[in-house]
């Protein structure tokens, strides 16, 4: 076994992806990191080209998925890593994890699962008893995962990646493109549209995929606030840095937990209004390191208040930055917690 080697299972599609952030965190602690892109392997074995690959995302083609997973098992056997890290819903079969553990009993296999548990698929549920750790960002889920046969559910909050999420000077071109009083970077959802309707008249900028133009009500004020295109990496940070207030609604399926944006915006040194949940209030102190709102009725009042109190915005933003970046809420901190829990 190579004690200094980690194998990540999941594509590194862009620098802001969770897998990319964990790769940087492991490497910063001196590990060699290899990546096995299981999705690329599934695409190679898919019939009918891109259409077949898209079907594989929704249907379990046993022979094809087994073939792609066989390549994963062979890669693990060749690399002999100390740790295999599976990300989220990567299509890793329980039988493949079983084979890895039979071949390399000293290699730990974990899953870092940042999605709502509603998105956990049957093949992921079948693998729960085999993971040395199954990491979730919802503390309340831990006892229920035990009931589902998960041996070692582990509460691992999300975090910030200071490589991407950090204060930076903005050029005049950045300000011309991104400046706004309020900003939201994310996908269209009906609950987001219903929430933002209450902010008509404010200077709101929405960045995200074209779902905003396809599904937001035609001719609506909210639809008119969509500025186009998803943002990633440095552009993602710039959009927040150019705004006075970042809006952070939390997916109802993430309640009572939190999301990535909670830490990412704070690491940029930007003030945000975050949907109030039990675990947000456990991770941050309301009024000191976070400001919260509770639904569409409270949000406009909070926006009015904090736009009129820039000194208070700055105080909370600075304290949130210190809390996240120097208070144990980066992906390097999460990796250290994993290594300690695994006794590696």
Poorly predicted segments = none
The best one-word shape is globular
Q: Compute the number of strand runs.
A: 11
- H/E element sequence: EHEHHHEHEHEHEHEHEHHHEHEHEHHH
Q: How much is the radius of gyration in Å?
A: 21 Å
Mean pLDDT: 92
What count of helical segments does DSSP give? Answer: 17
Derived from helix and strand composition plus strand pairing, the structural class reads alpha/beta
| Spatial sequence of strands, sheet with the most strands | 2-1-3-4-5-6
| Biggest sheet record | 6 strands, parallel
Estimated share of beta-strand residues: 15-25%
Helix content: 40-55%
End-to-end distance: 12 Å
Could you characterize what this model shows?
The protein has 344 residues and is an alpha/beta fold. It contains 17 helices and 11 strands. The protein has helices at residues 18-28, 38-45, 49-56, 62-79, 94-103, 122-127, 142-147, 172-178, 190-196, 211-215, 221-224, 233-241, 260-267, 278-283, 299-307, 310-325, 331-342; strands spanning 2-9, 32-36, 81-87, 108-113, 133-136, 153-155, 180-185, 204-207, 243-248, 272-275, 291-293. The strands form 2 sheets. Strands 2-1-3-4-5-6 form a 6-stranded parallel sheet, sandwiched between helices. Strands 8-7-9-10-11 form a 5-stranded parallel sheet, with helices on both faces. Helix 14 links the parallel strand 10 and strand 11.
